[in-house]
Design a protein that fits this description.
Blueprint lengths: L2 H5 L13 H31 L6 H32 L8 H25 L1
Length: about 120
């Protein structure tokens, strides 16, 4: 299985039966929330680089935020598709590492930002 096939699973609507529309809509809202989070991270990354050019390590901080944005966006569709397919087949929802990734990534970016801020103030 190629990386593209792993990231973009087949259309889940080709499997099983149509679930209660409320669950499908809730799954879609969750997907859109992850996409909004990804957009906010991208905006933050671009904002740091362009609005704080004098901050020590602003490029590193911007790249970290953009990287977290890419990972979130890339994982969001896969999570939506796997959940949709499970609902259509009457299976338990699959485990997702996206919340772990976001928690660890956000904590790491915050730690790096704090260190860079302190180092910038010391100079």
């Amino acid at each position: 299985m190629s990386i593209i096939q792993r990231l973009l699973p087949p259309d889940p609507r080709l499997f099983g039966q149509e679930p209660d529309y409320r669950f499908t809509l809730a799954n879609e809202r969750t997907f859109l929330a992850w996409v909004r989070t990804s957009l906010a991270l991208a905006a933050g990354g671009l904002g740091v680089v362009s609005l704080l050019p004098d901050l020590l390590g602003s490029e590193l901080l911007g790249i970290l935020l953009l990287g977290l944005s890419v990972a979130t966006a890339a994982s969001a569709y896969r999570r939506w598709a796997r959940n949709e397919r499970a609902m259509r087949l009457g299976q338990p929802l699959p485990h997702s590492r996206l919340p772990q990734l976001m928690a660890a990534g956000t904590a790491f970016v915050a730690l790096v930002a704090t260190v860079l801020f302190v180092l910038d103030r010391v100079q």
